[in-house]
Design a protein that fits this description.
The protein is of the alpha+beta class. It has helices at about 10-20, 50-60, 70-75, 80-85, 95-100, 105-110, 125-135, 160-170, 240-260, 290-295, 305-315, 390-400, and strands spanning about 1-5, 25-30, 40-45, 65-70, 90, 120-125, 140-145, 155, 180-185, 190-200, 205-210, 215, 220-225, 230, 265-275, 280-285, 325-335, 360-365, 365-370, 375, 380-390, 410.
Length: about 425
């Protein structure tokens, strides 16, 4: 069969690697892809938001399955366009992708169906938001309602910071229309855990857990990024936590969406906070996480095509997910200055060292081909991932593998998975 993957980052590279392992797949395309994906798939020069062109390409090439990796096209309704053209596609439709597309919607959904989350209020007026914050406690969390590349969340420790945060989101519109509505949320403390799942509209199958590192600097300092590294599984996602989430969060979220007439087929990413009062939902995403996919998918034993088809055909109840009894750690190699200002176009050396290394992966996030050489083309450049018999071994392997790669202005955090030592 022929498979088309829509996206251009490390997540899509990880998906492509999983698809490549399926004996059912003869040919992989990726639009637009990147230099690394181009080594295992044919990259197509069509952007992720060019729905008509993607549909035309899928029809003309006889694509049997399209996998949507990115949030923007999902929230924009790409699945609806593919379905109108009778094309087989994996991902939530526009009505369901609002689960990620609007934080205000998802918070209201959780409140309505008693799904544990932080206390909050939604605001479309900056003055009203300020009045609410002035009467509350600090720290407080401000969230732009819409998509903001994982960066539209501000933690404010005092009133001055809150005023500046309101200005940033609602008045200066730093995150564009995503800030037309703002969520003001109580600040929660605890361990963060990410749990990805496959969903077919009614049945949910949970993948292994992971933990991301969002801040740019060591010790969780600096600005929020798209993710500087991750590890799987999380030692903090215990059997007790799993049982609680299965009872009060996972299936409840799927059922709530179905009850609302927004049947969800695809991936639900649960961002959880493990508080003293139990697990709480921080956020939902409507697709694989990045870089969570880079540590979860390499550990999955199932044929990803079988699982995706079960989601589309609503036969997921017949599938049991299996994961290797090991661990994986991903360290993101970024361009120095990310996420604010950085230079691109530097040659990347050492990529060939991953070719014959079992259990080691170098997922491309921001790369391109330039006169036969692979060069940097983004803030997050590569996701160096390694497996190990346990988390400490995987972490050591991943950091050793980062030494194989070199490019000018290479930057990384040196404490990815350090929480492992505290578990």
């Amino acid at each position: 069969m022929k498979v088309l993957i829509v996206g251009s980052g490390g997540r899509e590279h990880a998906i492509a690697e999983s698809v490549k392992r399926s004996p059912k797949v003869d040919k992989i395309y990726c639009a637009p892809g990147n230099a690394g994906i181009g080594q295992i798939a044919e990259c197509v020069d069509i952007k992720a938001m060019e729905f008509d062109k993607l549909v035309d390409f899928a029809k003309s090439e006889g694509i049997d399955l399209t996998i949507i990796g990115m949030d923007d096209p999902l929230v924009g309704g790409i699945v609806d366009e593919f379905e109108k053209a009778d094309l087989r596609v994996f991902g939530p439709n526009k009505a369901a992708a609002i689960l990620e597309g609007s934080k205000a919607f998802s918070k209201d959904l959780m409140k309505k169906y008693n799904i544990p989350t932080a206390k909050y209020e939604n605001f479309t007026d900056a003055d009203e938001a300020l009045k609410y914050i002035e009467a509350g406690k600090f720290p407080v969390v401000l969230k732009a309602d819409g998509l903001a590349l994982g960066k539209g969340v501000l933690i404010c420790n005092n009133l001055d910071e809150a005023k500046e945060g309101i200005k940033t989101i609602m008045q200066d519109k730093k995150f564009g229309d995503a800030g037309n509505t703002m969520v003001v949320e109580e600040f929660m403390t605890g361990r963060e855990v990410s749990v990805l799942s496959f969903v077919d509209g009614k049945t949910i199958r949970i993948m292994t857990s992971a933990q991301d590192h969002k801040r740019a600097g060591d010790g969780d300092t600096g600005l929020n990024t798209g993710g500087m590294g991750t590890f799987s599984p999380s030692p903090f996602y215990t059997k007790e936590v799993d049982e609680f989430c299965k009872k009060y969060i996972f299936q409840a979220s799927v059922d709530a969406m179905a009850t609302e007439g927004r049947e969800f087929k695809g991936i639900i990413f649960f961002g959880l906070m493990l508080t003293e009062d139990g697990p709480r939902v921080l956020e939902y995403n409507a697709r694989f996480g990045d870089p969570e996919a880079q540590v979860v998918l390499p550990r999955m034993k199932n044929d990803i095509i079988d699982v995706i088809n079960a989601c589309i055909d609503q036969t997921l109840d017949q599938v049991e997910l299996e994961f290797e009894d090991n661990a994986a750690v991903c360290v993101v190699l970024a361009s120095d200055g990310y996420p604010v200002k950085y230079e691109k176009g530097f040659e990347i050396k050492g990529l060939e060292k991953f070719d014959d290394k079992d259990g080691y992966y170098c997922f491309h996030a921001g790369t391109r081909l330039d006169n036969g050489k692979i060069v940097t083309n983004g803030g997050r450049v590569l996701g160096v991932t390694a497996k190990g018999e346990n988390l400490k071994a995987a972490r050591a392997n991943a950091y050793e593998a980062t030494k194989w790669i070199d490019f000018e202005n290479k930057y990384m955090r040196n404490d990815i998975g350090k929480a492992i030592d505290e578990a």
